[in-house]
Amino acid sequence: MNSPKRLHPVAAILRFLRSLRELALPLVIFIFVGGGRERLFDTLYVVGIIVIVLGMLIFGILTWLRFTYRVEKDELRIESGVFVRKKRYIPIEKIQSIDVSSGVIQRMFGLVKVQVETAGGGDEAEAVLSAVTKVEAEELKVVLSKRTYTDEQDEKIEEIDEVVLSPKDILIMASTSGGVGVVLSALFAFLTQVDEFIPYDYVYGVARNVVGSSVVIIVVGVVFVTLLAWIVAIVSASVKFGNYKLVKRGENLYISRGLLEKREMTIPIKRIQAVRVQENIVRQLFGFASIYIEVAGGAIDKKEETSTFLLPIVSKKEVPKLLERFTPDFIVDSEVNSLPKRAQKRYIFRTIIPSIVVILIISLLLNPWGYISVILLPIAYLVGVSMYREAGWVVKENRLLLRYRFLNRHTVFARRNRIQAFHFIHSFFQRKSLLASIVVSTQSKLTGKHFKVMDVDEVDAIELYHWYSYEKKQPS
């Protein structure tokens, strides 16, 4: 692959569609708000729109023509740029992962998209090849992974372990994902962008009539909107995580998922920095959890921020067995050490004070109905007690387990040699109670990932500090 190669011509179409999507909202405003309906049919007005669209198409073609890639001297070399020529050389030894995905358009032409990730590469992939053939993608993976076809053949005789999530598993995951809030937030964000088209006078008139008619109608309306958002969240999660498959072969994990857009990711096990088991309130009630891995180089999906799903939904009872199968180096099977009793009041204090502020604000703004918000006080108390009871830690040889929660419960498994930093936090009030907080940081993207357990016994916190640092002096 020493000679420069271009992407498939479909890459020009993909670039054009991306530009069109980015300018979709400005174009809609340009068409409908530009000056009234009579201008819509004005010749110059229509010609202007056509020129903009054609310009984006031509720019997409030029971008494709000016983009080349090759592998030379142990580097992936990419040259791009329509007006300013850009050259990017990526050493093979710095490549952390190679992700392969195929959207609807790529599938129509039998193509895939290849993304190359490096450690500390930020939010964006270091290199993106938007349209290459499957054969070219496999050849590229072989070359960038420093493997030969003989190695590929040898891998076939290695032991393979895999987990495939059934449609029932995906439905459970989608139903308990808490995506309702995300859908409602997205709807609110959309409305703020198109507020010029919303007839607020009519909406307010309808709202006044509804409020004055019946509380039942209001309740039914809220339930309907929530149910609709829940259904949308289920469909979205099912499309995103459908056909989810996890395979362990040799020293790599292979993750694939997606109905409309198929995504694949190869994760070297040695790049895993920590394993995290997360349980939201609903899943904890029904005995389910999600397993994440913190990988040097980032997540399979940028929307997942810095964490990658190992398995998006599993039975809590199966978690130890699954970790033993896929990430045995991180297993800690000892009993978790609880926090001292004197730490409980601090956890309760952290939840009670914000709730009092919220109650006062609601009571002042919605008098007299706002006084109902006083129910937040016992809820805040129970949340504080739950946070205290769930928090804990344990060390076994060179492995560390941390557990903490707010709304979601997190159980983190880490190895000492994969921890980037260990912070010992000792505030004035903590010193008075002989307590301290510990923060463990691992490499994952540019900013890393941080896990914190507050109000550990001061003696235990110092021991943990010594366990990580090998120092024999008390931290300042």
UniProtKB/TrEMBL annotation:
Pfam families: bPH_2. The keyword Membrane applies. The chain crosses the membrane at residues 12-33, 45-67, 170-191, 211-239, 347-366, 372-395. The keyword Lyase does not apply. InterPro entries: UCP026631, YdbS-like_PH. Keywords: Membrane, Transmembrane, Transmembrane helix. Residues 64-140, 249-324, 388-468 form the YdbS-like PH domain. This is PH domain-containing protein.
